[in-house]
Specification:
- Helix 3 packs antiparallel against helix 17 and helix 12 crosses helix 22.
- The strands form three sheets. Strands 1, 2, 3, 4, 7, 12 and 13 form a seven-stranded mixed β-sheet that branches. This protein has a four-stranded mixed β-sheet with strand order 9-10-8-11.
- It starts with a strand and ends with a helix.
- About 50% of the residues lie in helices and about 15% in strands.
- The radius of gyration is 23 Å and the shape is globular.
- By secondary structure, it is α/β, with parallel strands linked by helices.
- Strand 2, helix 3 and strand 3 form a beta-alpha-beta unit.
Amino acid sequence: MRSKVIGAVSLAVAAVGLFAATAPAFAQQKTITVWWGKGFYRSEDDALIETIKKFEAKTGIKVELSQYAIQDMIPKTVAALDAGTVPDVAYSDSYDVQAQGKWAYEGKLEDLTDVMEPIKDRFVQNTLDASILYNDVTKKKAYYGFPLKQQSMHVEIWNDMLEKAGFKLSDIPTDWAGYWTFWCDKVQPGIRKATGQRIYGVGQPMGVESTDAFQSFYTFMDAYHVKLVDDDGKLLVDDPKVRENLIGALKDYTDTYIKGCTPPSSTTWKDPDNNVAFHNKTIVMTHNFTISIAAKWFEDSQNQALTQEQRDAGKKAYEQDIVTASFPKAPDGSTIRYRSDVKTGLVFTAAKNKAEAKQFISFLLQEENVRPYIEGALGRWFPVTKESQASPFWQADKHRKAVYAQFTGGTAAFDFTKNWKFTILNNENVWAKAMNRVVSEKVPVDKAVDELIARIKQVAG
């Protein structure tokens, strides 16, 4: 559903005509169009709208803001590109994963170096790197996007359910094999015996329409040190070691399903579904590419539209019952280096008001504006600026501290930042398709991996 907000108020066309005779300067006032993915929480959208009001008051430039559901942003943007009617500024959580690299390669994105270069020292390096992409028209790399926020992988656990199953947090193994065996062979039978309910130890996202599935599988690949491309984007999948480690990662990922430790429906899950299963307490743990699961309960605790009992339940869940944790050690005993997905906004070369669009971006990225927007997401997004990362917000509770620790421990970029054709593979979700070949079609893991490698070579070679 489309939500449209016209900032501080762009008056109706009729009103402009009414005052044109007496106020010609008003009639000539600049207006920029901004398309933005709708926030997960109202506080995100409120912070964005407040920044827009401040920008309008300072510059006299009017902002026409249209917000859309994330799943609608790519189709709408593609249609606008085809029609030549693009917005002046656009942001979607899905741009970087599904389209930005391709659009940069094709010369459809405006170079934002003049915006980013003067302020780059304020940003953490990995977020800058994710915004520097190759343009095959100009034959150069540049800032074809501006970094706004980032996300990474976390594990969410119901500690009260773990205790009901007869275990405590200190019982969770830290070695790779022992960790997954613990949830399947100990916690799941324990919680079922204690409750008499068909509860699953793990929520393992596997749906082809789920970004959680490919992001989670990347973590399994990273546990096995799978490197699909080099820093220049050249494929490495012909290396026999890559194949061997891919087999290990896919076997471990699908074994959870084959052993009956994740709900049968997880093969068709979309992104919200593991959250829903967790909230409904039909699973004890899941891995998720933000802490939106925990943050939902925090939001409940603050929501004055809920009853006091519901707010208290939210507070207890957030502060006591839910734990945000990390993955175990990799199979070789090393610590997994998590992927960071840096979310970026764009200006298209076909935009009509590029100078004013860049003014807006520069204003938005000022610390006093970008920080309330990121923190309005209640920990779901991590900042891209050094100053915001040092904000007390990230030390306020155990969940945010866990996020802070993972990011400051060092992250790696996704392959699509090095080879844009991986956005096609992500759109297809070849990773989840390989999982489903194994669990639904009973294809041997090694054959599914060979098919996966062949598709990677066909698309990204």
